[in-house]
């Protein structure tokens, strides 16, 4: 039985050997502490599905990137399950048959782009630390999407974070093009992304 509590003697290998870590929602490991991710709600699910689809649409046809949802990433001191991870084509774990390996990403395959969508009950600091850790391990880009605030925090290695708001007059009321992976032809704005939550009856 899993418990959300610190255990300094629990190693990453010990955690990965535990049963039920990939139950829905998944469990994550950070330096001996394990915790279960919150169950996604409608805002979260909609943004996750739509954004991953848009990234694949832009990146798969020219063999640039692929997006994956809820894929476990085992790094040196953490086992996390970001909402979306994006891998450059050269980093895809492809076997000799030309198929994707049916496995977790190891630490040598830190996601090129990691995207988290904040749930109301999640700790902003903990989610931010996971993204920063990925950047430290080699990720190029991180996004932290906050549906409640209609904001996207963009994190790049060795650069100051940038915050984009859907109604911020300083950045054209959400019309500023958001940074994406280099070489990816994808033009998204905060206004566009959060418009996916709006439906007329």
- First-last Cα distance: 45 Å
Shape: globular
Strand tally is: 10
- Could you give a short account of the major beta sheet? 6 strands, mixed
Give the spatial strand order of the biggest sheet: 3-6-7-8-9-10
Number of helices: 4
The percent of residues in helical segments reads 10-25%
Order of helices and strands: HEEHEEEEEHEEEH
Beta-strand portion reads 15-25%
What is the rounded Rg?
17 Å
In the predicted model, the low-confidence regions spanning at least 5 consecutive residues are: none
What structural class is derived from the secondary structure elements? alpha+beta
What's the pLDDT, averaged over the residues? Answer: 89
Offer a few descriptive terms.
10 strands, four-stranded antiparallel sheet, 201 residues, 4 helices
Report on this structure:
This protein has helices spanning 12-17, 42-59, 124-136, 190-195; strands spanning 27-30, 33-36, 65-69, 73-74, 78-80, 84-88, 113-117, 141-146, 151-156, 162-165. With 201 residues, it is of the alpha+beta class. The chain has a 6-stranded mixed β-sheet with strand order 3-6-7-8-9-10, with helices on both faces. Strands 2-1-5-4 form a 4-stranded antiparallel β-sheet. The radius of gyration is 17 Å and the shape is globular.
């Amino acid at each position: 039985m899993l418990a959300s509590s610190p255990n300094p003697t629990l190693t990453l290998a010990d955690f990965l050997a535990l049963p039920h870590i990939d139950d829905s929602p998944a469990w994550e490991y950070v330096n001996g502490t394990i915790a279960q991710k919150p169950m996604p709600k409608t805002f979260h699910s909609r943004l996750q599905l739509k954004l991953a689809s848009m990234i694949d649409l832009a990146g798969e046809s020219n063999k640039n990137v692929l997006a994956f949802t809820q894929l476990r990433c085992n790094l040196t001191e953490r086992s996390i399950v970001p909402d979306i991870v994006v891998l450059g084509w050269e980093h895809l774990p492809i076997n000799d048959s030309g198929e994707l390996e049916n496995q977790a990403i190891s630490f040598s395959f830190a996601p090129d782009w990691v995207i988290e969508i904040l749930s109301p009950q999640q700790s902003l600091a903990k989610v931010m630390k996971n993204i920063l850790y990925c950047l430290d391990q080699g990720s190029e880009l991180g996004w932290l999407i906050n549906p409640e605030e209609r904001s996207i925090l963009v994190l790049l290695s060795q650069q100051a974070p940038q915050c984009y708001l859907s109604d911020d007059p300083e950045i054209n009321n959400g019309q500023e093009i958001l940074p994406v992976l280099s070489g990816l032809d994808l033009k998204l704005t905060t206004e566009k992304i959060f418009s996916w939550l709006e439906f007329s009856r």
